[in-house]
Amino acid sequence: MLDFLPQWFQIFFFSMVPWLEARYVIPLSMLQYGWEWWQAFPLAIAGNILPIPFILLFFRYVEKFLRRFPFWVKIMDWLFARTRKKADEKISKYEYLGLFAFVALPVPFTGAWTGALIAYLFNLKFSRSLLAIFLGLIFAAAIMIVLTIYISWTLTYLGINI
Q1: Does a structural domain hold residue 68?
Q2: Percent of the chain with pLDDT over 70
Q3: How many other CB atoms are there within 10 angstroms of residue 6's CB atom?
């Protein structure tokens, strides 16, 4: 990674990156840096949640600005259509519980950034959306921690070094 930066900063910073987020940075910090999960967890969660309130509050202004440029119109139309298609049934029916479940599922394209975009697209309330996304982040990170520990232990038991 960026070896000239302290590991704690790398964990914090890379958790802010869309589609990487805490769910993948925590296992990476455990395997690459030898950090314990409880050391990486608060840094990664803090880094991951940091941009979310800004997305929820200000994305409409960013969208309005970017829609002045044809290149961004095409990208946003594609991204918004894809996001709506993935989330429409869950969010329309379950709203914040659906948002939580969407963020909590630790698979690609279902993290906090996408959750914030969904909250924006479905015009969900700020405080409830932020809470649902935050709880989903914690749940997704916990799943990845358990999987990482289990896989690491299993490989060690089988005599395979990681």
Answers
A1: yes
A2: 99
A3: 10
Q: Give the total number of structural domains in the chain.
A: 1
Q: Closest Cα to residue 128, out of 114, 115, 145, 138? A: 115
What the block records as the tokens of 135 is 């709880």
| Residue 79 resides in a domain | yes
pLDDT the model gives residue 3? 83
pTM, two decimals, is: 0.92
Q: What is the DSSP string of 49-116?
A: HTTHHHHHHHHHHHHHHHTTSHHHHHHHHHHHHHHHHHHHHHHHHHTHHHHHHHHHS-STT-SHHHHH
To the nearest whole percent, how much of the chain has pLDDT over 90?
Answer: 83
Query: What's the mean pLDDT when you consider all of the chain?
Result: 94
Q: Is residue 82 part of a domain?
A: yes
Cβ atoms < 10 Å from Cβ of 71: 8
CA dihedral 66, 72, 77, 83 (to 10 degrees): -80
Domain that holds residue 95: 52-156
Q: What is the per-residue pLDDT for 1? A: 55
Q: Is the Cβ–Cβ distance between 102 and 110 less than 8 Å? A: yes
